[in-house]
Write a structure and sequence with these properties.
It contains seven helices and two strands. The chain has helices at residues 3-24, 33-52, 54-68, 75-99, 106-123, 127-133, 143-164; strands spanning 136-138, 141-142. A hairpin with a 2-residue loop joins β1 and β2 (141-142). α1 (3-24) packs antiparallel against α2 and α1 runs parallel beside α7 (143-164).
Amino acid sequence: MSAEIIQFTTVVLYFLAGLICGVNIFIVDKSMRGTWLGISLLLTFLGISKQWDILSNWALAIRDSDWLYAWYELRQIFQIILLGTFLLFLMAWFLAVLRNSPWQLWFPISMISGLVLLSVLSEVSYRPFDLLMYKDLFPGFQANMLIEISGIILLILSAIFAFFFPKLTKPQNN
């Protein structure tokens, strides 16, 4: 399968998931609207990022500035600091979202968050994760694509479930 077709499909799935989660803002319980809005905005941003290749361009710009300002030798230290900071914010976001989320969102959000973590580890040139993420499962279909598309599809299914059964997806602390 062509990489362009897979990327286009992924972008369409991101936007579709963002749209379905956005529709749920008007359907679900009032306490859940912020969660669905946040997920919808995140999925829309990830779709735009995937289409315009923002993460790769950002990593390339950082590598170029490393060479330009002659601190390329210290990049591992800065990458570890950046990764640690990112993981701290990711963990805070993850806990904030899951605190009020219905149980159906836990696994898909975990998959998307894990993919973002693997992408960041890949961008900071952590070689073992590069080997894992870009291993071909099928000709032209890599592990990172499977994780990403599966997470998006599970989010879409969770959002559809919340749309049709809003009483079953109420937060567990209510």
